Amino acid sequence: MDWNQDAPPHPLPSEMFMLDGPAGALAVHVAGPEAAPPVLLVHSVNAAASAAEIRPLFESLRQGHRVYAPDLPGFGLSARPAIVHTPRVMTDALATVQAAIAERHPGRPLDALAVSLGCEFLARAASENPAAYRSLALVSPTGFRGARPPYGSAGSTRALPRLHAFLTRQLWRRRLFDLLTSRRSIRFFLRKTWGDKHIDEQMFEYAWRTARAPGAEHAPLCFLSGFLFSADIGRVYETLRMPVWMVHGTRGDFVDYRLKNVLALSSGWSFDVMQAGALPYFEQPQAFLTAWEQFRRSAKPLS
């Protein structure tokens, strides 16, 4: 990439292909035997997000699966246009990726995993095309916090347009983002994610590098002003008609999942808690993979 000669060509040990997505070029990282079962991995959303966030899973699963990991619109090696990024843009991007995978693996529904806010986009994509997904794994998903389920009107978001207008003024937009994604800031937020001062240094380094890309500020500033959070995600989660495994940690800033008790009554959902931060597969990769594999093996279509 010409924006940083020191940056790795892509965040994962993989090949990469590009799709024509809803917000321009969509980068998809892929590895593993071509005839193996397909798995989709979706990263989270933050100021410096990319597919690098799911590296431990990608590296392990490629031994026996065909693993696909997109960079969501506005992140990683995907296009970074100056548009308002919304759940619809992200969901349509995942639908584009799913369709491309289906062409390569006809008749094989996906086991898919997403992290944090990426879970909302994956859940919406799966609710709109349930036949395409065999099972879902939601890691530290958003939308479960607080005392009231998010049951807003269909398609509504938590957008704050005035805040977005302020953050995106050309006079300070990039300078503000550069402060937000300085080495000190990224390390600070990753420590909050881990709930510990010991973070993954490779992920930290790539996060800093990818935030230096031209246009890197557009999607994160939409994130900060609420445009990427769905106000109706409670209804979306409740419409899922495939087995769902939800797992989260006990440390850091992402430990409030009170609303999972609402969904615990829904058939098809199972829950695990790990003594880790919000990305438990970095800290306990083998335990995480074993639990996820056991879930996938036991997953049966819902009636």
Structural notes for this entry:
- The chain is an alpha/beta fold.
- It has one domain: 3-Layer(aba) Sandwich (Rossmann fold), CATH 3.40.50.1820.
- It has 12 helices and 8 strands.
- The chain has an 8-stranded mixed β-sheet with strand order 1-2-4-3-5-6-7-8, with helices on both faces.
- β3, α1 and β4 form a beta-alpha-beta unit.
- The termini are far apart.
List the helices and strands and how they pair.
Blueprint: E1 15-21, E2 24-31, E3 38-42, H1 55-61, E4 66-70, H2 87-104, E5 110-115, H3 118-128, E6 133-139, H4 161-167, H5 173-180, H6 183-194, H7 201-210, H8 218-224, H9 233-238, E7 244-249, H10 260-263, E8 269-274, H11 280-283, H12 285-298
Parallel strand pairs: 3-4, 3-5, 5-6, 6-7, 7-8
Antiparallel strand pairs: 1-2, 2-4
How would you summarize this macromolecular structure in one to three sentences?
This protein has 303 residues and is of the alpha/beta class. It is built from twelve helices and eight strands. Strands 1-2-4-3-5-6-7-8 form an eight-stranded mixed sheet, with helices on both faces.
Could you give the order of strands across the largest sheet?
A: 1-2-4-3-5-6-7-8
Looking at CATH, the homologous superfamily is: Alpha/Beta hydrolase fold, catalytic domain
In angstroms, what is the radius of gyration? 18 Å
**Low-confidence runs:** 1-8
Query: How many domains, as an integer?
Result: 1
Query: Helix segment count?
Result: 12
Q: H/E order of the elements? A: EEEHEHEHEHHHHHHEHEHH
- The CATH architecture assignment turns out to be 3-Layer(aba) Sandwich
CATH topology: Rossmann fold
User: How much helix, percentage-wise, in residues?
Assistant: 25-40%
Shape: globular
- CATH class category label: Alpha Beta
Largest sheet: 8 strands, mixed
